[in-house]
Task: inverse folding
């Protein structure tokens, strides 16, 4: 399950829907894996305004990942018109000044889309229920007494 997904899931119990403590679910005993993906700059740009930034920071903290800035970056930070040194030789004059993904965009891509939780648990901060993650899939089905 991608780190991005953790920004969109919450505890399935009805009693937790209205509780701020139920989001984000806290990863525990997480085994992480990097699954390389082609970078999609427009996707990252479009998803950025929909992120709950504080929740993302919290999850990164729990997982011991890179510390994110305290406020969400602006879409302008995601592109740079300065050619990277390594690209200069290859870039022809026509696209040398095209906007290209900034390091920040690459970092967000790696964090949100390539970093995946392979196994572990997601714990609700309100009710304490633990959702198991196995083979990269979280099981959000509740036992009948909790529904
Ligand atoms: Zn809950």
Result:
């Amino acid at each position: 399950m991608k780190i991005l997904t953790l920004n969109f899931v919450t505890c399935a119990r009805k009693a937790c829907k209205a509780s701020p403590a139920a989001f984000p679910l806290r990863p525990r005993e997480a085994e992480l894996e990097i699954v390389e993906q082609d970078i999609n700059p427009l996707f990252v740009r479009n998803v950025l305004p929909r992120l709950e930034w504080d929740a993302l920071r919290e999850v990164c903290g729990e997982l011991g990942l890179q510390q994110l800035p305290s406020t969400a970056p602006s879409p302008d930070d995601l592109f740079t018109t300065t050619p990277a040194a390594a690209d200069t030789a290859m870039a022809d004059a026509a696209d040398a000044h095209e906007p290209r993904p900034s390091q920040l965009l690459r970092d967000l891509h790696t964090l949100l889309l390539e970093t995946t939780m392979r196994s572990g648990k997601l714990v609700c901060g309100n009710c304490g229920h633990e959702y198991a993650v196995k083979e990269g899939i979280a099981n959000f089905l509740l036992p009948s007494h909790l529904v």
